[in-house]
Write a structure and sequence with these properties.
The complex is a heterodimer of chains A (about 800) and B (about 160). Chain A contains 27 helices and 35 strands. Chain A has about 800 residues and is of the alpha+beta class. In chain A, strands 10-12-9-13-11-14-15 form a seven-stranded mixed beta sheet. In chain A, α10 (about 195-210) runs parallel beside α12 (about 290-305) and α24 crosses α27 (about 790-800). Mean pLDDT of chain A is about 95; it is low at about 280-285. Chain B has one domain (about 1-160): Mth169, Chain: A (2-Layer Sandwich). Chain B has a six-stranded antiparallel beta sheet. In chain B, α1 crosses α5 (about 140-150). The longest helix of chain B is centred in the N-terminal third of the chain and has 13 residues, at about 15-25. The two termini of chain B are about 20 Å apart. The chains are: A alpha+beta (about 800), B alpha+beta (about 160). At the A-B interface, loops of A face α4 of B.
Chain lengths: ~800, ~160
């Protein structure tokens, strides 16, 4: 029997509200009743029912994934603090927080923000640097390998699809997984074990990234049982683009060309599916399979065509497939497409399936008629399939035909601006965080805690993962993810530095990539969580030598169900933190993405994930050689900590392993941190810093230990010398996770220069580095002294993840 | 149709088999003594046995570390015991075979189809790529099903058979 490939008319004009809701659910449209009614009104005006193609097109275009309805919708927000309520209405949360900060900062070096597939900033006179980070959570929960592979494949295409196409230079990957030691019997039916998800995700990223010939240079992995059924998979790509190719312009009459992979039934409903919760019955066709070899060929050939100026616009086929890609390019002009011309993997696809399939590795181009032959020749040479499927018009309509018969005819304006703005309620109750009772552990218990912290899943070495990735390919990675004296001896680098000399000839400049993510803080205070993530990403970048005045950041929200007012309220708080921090540090957001509805269902009960904001930072530096790494370099050198240590154990690793109740979550103090970061950049450029490491998870004790064991050195630290705000015990000083701190190594003869340079900032001289590899912490005031061999602590850090 | 099975030679480490073996014990399933792994390709089309052998030796395997077996199989036999297993069958050996479900993009198979042409065999073929895990030890059907679903196959996109 031949499968049905006809276009059907869907009856909606005479449906009741309940029937409309049922239809949306049954056909996986993920449209709300309000939206279904808007669709009904539109077609009533046209005097006919929609076709299945039209209905699917609306669903894709209006999906949360493509339109970000929550962040750009109306939010009525109520905040409660000390019993007092205050209200505020946001007409568009994104525009009134994150985007607003960027507009107000008005940095001239921001070349393209929030309008294209990636953000672009100034690199040098002729080139820009583009950066984008995306999530691929739901597909990775169902098929970890394919989900993460297509995640990285998709974000690489975002970089190919920015302007007229950037050349990808580096990937970053950040994951949140459930506890890998979860008992198999505790994993709900129909879901994968967290360890299986973790392994699958890592191999997916490895296989796709490595085969594309793009190094994976930076990342992070967080573990928390809240991510068991709903892992978070963030993939990012950075690229270089000539400045004269940052803008695209489609002209009526240009041809629509689709190049790369063929279209199949893969990933149907990916965009609408990402707006629904995960459960046992999740839609099977939402899985996509990646093929890096095809994408690599597309990359190589399209950059050739770009340099010959053969097309006027390009975008990738991501969520929503052709419907999104062609729809976006033709938004201002109109477009007419013949669906039967799209190359298919196999027969039997209905027109609507062709239109919204999320089959991978496809790019859509707007090609002037005169270049028709030339561009196809270029693709043909490398065996890349390319087909002309239609043309851009000037009627501002979306016209789709299938074998000549019209299957969709709609106004672009209705598609892109017709979505009704929902009004959502948000509430947030600000709780006062309580300081814990003073923590005074004995020397023996402090050493035990240090070992516990270093081997904790959220601090320990991710070497097992990092070494599977190629972080060297293209030969431009000058500061690498693992740093130390050898393959067996390493510590965690704070950020990666790319020196793009193969793309930009004779350049000395470098690009710094880093990230910040703190899911544990988000469980207590989402404002501080977001602020901390921003500061952490900046701190990591500055630690290797980035200039705080030339850093841009990306936001990636992963949140639970925004229909619940408390959850949306916590999102509003985080968005406000983004505005405040962006302004205070003078660091603009250039792009972002949100993945809401991260909710899963176990035994009929719904759970939302611990909300988290990933902040990814990209900085441009004048000289890639003026960068530092984190291992201690030389015995006899001095160790300083920059920044104040505060009593902030809330959400920290130390509190978790010692079961400490209460505790204040680390806050951010830009008025202290920003000048400190500016001075550190100056010090690194003057060659005054031998090594530098940021102080974060595990606090000062973990940071100092990592620097010592990765350099196979020892160190003697005087705890009493640490400058604090407020009274702290030795235990609290060692493990508080206060933001804004760096540990630096300075040669003895430079000590005075450092003290002079950092005048006005908190600078504490902690002690000396020793050639004898033993790490010693001492407080005469409290009678505390403990020590351990560097190698022993290295093993604690290294041996947790060895799958 | 030809069925090509590739496995490690005796003196070379069967990394995938060893890996699965340790993962089975992590799952808490007892009684498994050993696991060996083979990659399987099913190739249909107008090729002869010499060509199938060339494909196995030149394209799909590493002559130094891997051994190959090339057998003919009727498509109608696809649901019965694979040839490689027929002689081995006894109570303390089970086989789990994993292939993609129909309609799921099989990128390895796509590469094989292209590479066969690059090899100079200019014929239209169909291919599919799968995996075979030989599990040694007396294990219950339910434990085998557990191994298959928890470790070896993602039933969303793959199907498995236990022999």
């Amino acid at each position: 029997m031949k499968p049905e490939t006809k276009c059907k008319t869907i009856e909606i004009l005479n449906l009741s509200d309940k029937q409309l809701t049922d239809l949306s659910k049954k056909a996986v449209l993920s449209l709300s009743l309000e939206e279904m009614k808007t669709v009904k009104r539109y077609f009533k005006k046209l005097g006919r029912n929609p076709t299945d193609v039209e209905l699917e097109t609306v669903a894709q275009t209006w999906s949360e994934h493509c339109k970000h309805k929550t962040l750009t919708g109306i939010i009525e927000y109520t905040q409660e603090e000390n019993g007092k309520k205050s209200k505020r209405t946001y007409k568009n949360l994104l525009k009134e927080t994150i985007f607003k900060a960027t507009v107000e900062l008005n940095k001239k070096w921001c070349l393209s923000v929030f309008k294209d597939n990636a953000g672009v900033i100034d690199f040098d006179l002729k080139n820009g640097a583009a950066f984008k980070v995306e999530t691929h959570n739901h597909p990775s929960a169902l098929e970890p390998y394919g989900g993460s592979a297509t995640g990285i494949g998709g974000v690489i295409r975002d970089i190919l699809g920015v302007g007229l196409g950037a050349k990808p230079l580096a990937n970053t990957d950040v994951f949140c997984f459930g506890d890998p030691d979860t008992k198999a019997s505790k994993v709900p039916a129909g879901m994968h074990h967290p360890k299986r998800i973790a392994k699958g995700v890592v191999s997916g990223v490895r296989d796709y990234g490595n085969r594309m010939g793009i190094p994976t240079v930076n990342g992070a992995v967080c573990f928390d049982e809240g991510y068991m059924a709903n892992p978070l998979v963030y993939c990012g790509t950075m690229g270089i683009i000539p400045k004269n190719m940052i803008n695209k312009k489609v002209k009526p009459g240009d041809l629509v060309l689709v190049a790369g992979g063929r279209t199949g039934r893969d990933g149907i409903h990916g965009a609408t599916f990402s707006s629904t919760q995960l459960d046992k019955e999740s839609d099977v066709s939402a899985v996509q399979i990646g093929n890096p070899i095809v994408e690599k060929k597309v990359l190589d050939t399209m950059l050739k065509a770009r340099d010959l100026g053969l097309y006027r616009a390009v975008t990738d086929c991501g969520a929503g497939g052709l419907s999104s890609a062609a729809g976006e390019l033709g938004e201002k002009t109109g477009v007419k497409i013949e669906l039967s011309k799209v190359p298919l993997k196999y027969e039997g696809l209905s027109p609507w399936e062709i239109w919204i399939s999320e089959a991978q590795e496809r790019m859509v181009f707007a090609v002037p008629k005169e270049n028709k032959k030339k561009i196809v020749e270029i693709f043909k040479k490398e065996d890349v399939e390319a087909a002309f499927i239609g043309e851009f018009t000037d009627d501002k309509k979306l016209t789709l035909t299938y074998n000549g018969e019209t299957v969709a005819y709609m106004d672009m304006e209705f598609l892109h601006d017709g979505v009704p703005k929902p009004t959502r309620l948000a509430v947030y109750k600000i709780k006062t965080e309580k300081k814990q009772k003073p923590v005074k552990l004995s020397s023996a218990k402090l050493l035990k805690s240090l070992k516990g912290v270093l081997s904790d899943l959220n601090v320990c070495s991710k070497e097992w993962i990092i070494r599977q990735y190629d972080h060297e390919v293209q030969g431009q990675t000058v500061v690498k993810p693992l740093q130390g004296n050898g393959i067996e001896v390493s510590g965690p680098g704070d950020a990666a530095v790319i020196w793009p000399y193969t793309v930009v000839k004779d350049t000395k400049k470098g690009i710094v990539l880093s990230n910040g993510i703190d899911p544990q803080y988000g469980k207590i205070n989402t404002y501080k969580m977001a602020a901390s993530a921003i500061e952490e990403s900046l701190r990591n970048a500055v630690a290797v030598g980035a200039d705080i005045d030339k850093i841009s950041i990306l936001d990636n929200f992963c949140w639970g169900n925004p229909n619940k007012p408390e959850i949306l309220g916590s999102l509003v708080r985080a968005a406000n933190a983004c505005y405040d921090m962006s302004k205070a540090f003078g660091v603009p957001f250039i792009s972002g993405k949100d993945s809401l509805h991260n909710e899963y269902c176990i035994g009929g009960k719904k759970y939302s994930i611990p909300p988290v904001l990933l902040v990814s930072a990209m900085g441009v530096i004048e000289n890639a050689a003026n960068t530092v790494t984190m291992p201690f370099k030389q015995g006899g050198n001095k160790v300083f900590v920059l920044g104040y240590t505060r009593n902030e154990l809330g959400g920290g690793v130390f509190s978790k392993i010692n079961a400490i109740k209460d505790g204040v979550v680390p806050d951010v103090y830009p008025e202290e941190s920003k000048p400190l970061m500016q001075k550190l950049h100056a010090a690194i450029n003057k060659g005054l810093i031998e090594s530098c490491h940021d102080c974060c998870e595990g606090g000062l004790a973990a940071a100092v230990s990592e620097m010592a064991f990765s350099g196979q050195k020892g160190v003697k630290i005087n705890i009493d010398a640490v400058k604090t705000k407020g009274n702290l015990t030795s235990s609290e000083i060692l493990f508080s996770q206060s933001n804004g701190r760096f540990v630096i190594e300075v040669r003895d003869e430079n000590s005075d220069k450092i003290k002079e340079l950092f005048k006005g900032c908190a600078v504490s001289e902690l002690g000396d580095i020793t050639e004898e590899p033993r790490i010693i912490f001492e407080s005469k005031k409290e009678g505390i002294k403990f020590s351990e061999k560097s190698e022993t602590l290295l093993k604690c850090w290294k041996n947790t993840i060895n799958w | 149709m030809y069925e090509i099975e590739i496995s490690s030679k005796k003196d070379f480490k069967d990394v995938r088999g060893l890996n699965i073996f340790s993962e089975i014990s992590e799952l808490g399933i007892k009684g498994v003594e050993k696991v060996t792994y083979s990659q399987v390709y099913k190739i249909a089309g107008d090729i002869n046995s010499l060509e199938a052998k060339t494909i196995a030796a030149e394209l799909l395997s590493d002559k130094i570390t891997e051994k190959t077996s090339v057998k003919t199989a009727e498509p109608s036999e696809c649901c019965s015991l694979p040839n490689s297993f027929a002689g081995l069958q006894n109570q303390s050996l089970s086989l789990i075979e994993v292939f993609y479900k129909k309609g799921v993009t099989d990128t390895v198979a796509e590469s094989v189809i292209k590479a066969v042409k690059d090899l100079g065999i200019n014929k239209d073929i169909k291919a599919s790529a799968g995996h075979r895990y030989y599990v040694y030890g007396k294990i219950s059907q339910s434990a085998l099903k557990n191994i298959a679903e928890k470790l070896l196959a993602n039933t969303l996109i793959q199907e498995y058979k236990i022999f």
